[in-house]
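Hey, I was hoping to borrow your eyes for a little while. No rush at all, and the record is pasted right below.
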Amino acid sequence: MKFGHVRIKRRYVYLGAALLLLLGAGLYIYWRFEPSAHFKRTDIPILATPEADLPSTGPQSGVTKPGSPQTPAKANDSSRQHSFNILILGTDARSQELSRTDVIMLAHVNPDRHTVNLISIPRDTRVHINGVGYTKINHAHVLGEMNGGGTHSGTQATIQAVSNLFSSSINYYIKTDFEGFEHFIDTLGGLDVYLEQPVKLTYGHKTFPAGDNHLSGAEALDLVRERKSLPGGDTSRQANQAMVLKEIVRTVIKPQNLKSLPSLISQVREDILDTNLSDNDMISLAWMVQEVKEDGFQYVQLPGYNGRAMDPLVKSELYYWMPDMEEWATSSQHLLED
């Protein structure tokens, strides 16, 4: 009888030990990856702050005079918000050729509030680049590569151009190319998107119908690149790019994919050209996005108007998107400040 009692007690001991281990593992995972806690412990990097020697705002200059550089909250400063900016870039290169940035988006992330503000920047936006003058923002990547240092210099030049444009610090970046984008979508098993109206591909001899569509990697790339057939031209393309980005995140955090998150993170490393986000950063961001409610996600496009001006690089007149920074300051600047 005593021996039976000993065995029962041992079972309780083992059960208690197992529960303690599970509790400890859960607390460790929460401590390590919970978004707010993770980024409060992280010394958030500052990749670029606005340059102080840019021209003041002038007629159709398309830039605004930078103010004091914004400094992200440090991990040990609990009195400040731990928000940060992530620059998302998609380049048009398929090999080792010099490349322009076909997709430029700035995401302002606040892990404490579980909010993501996404700002789409037209690739034809007219900005001032030191040593060059006023040119298209997607030329910054090419200029950086030409100045030496390869694709990393191109990334840094684009980061600086966006920092100057918004008078804001840039903390993280993610950059991919056509091939990497296609492959990652295919790794996810394709992408489900909803289209408000049909999209006819200018060069693909195909039309995506209105309603639900399941896209392969190549089809998703065709969608985010299409411009000419869309009623709003580049404005509609930017909206489609934001929609696809949102659906990629939603797909990654589906319950059936969360169990494969470590392998997906590894796949991201293979498919993107470059990022300064760590694996833990990406896991924490995926966790945070899963908790973002519909009103916690805001999307805007950089306000402005169509215009033409001389370009110092090609020595001829080009089409530009002239950013209206006064309108930006009035309507949307707060999206980078919360």
Summary: The first helix runs from residue 2 to 33. The radius of gyration is 23 Å. Confidence is low (pLDDT under 50) at residues 16-31, 57-81.
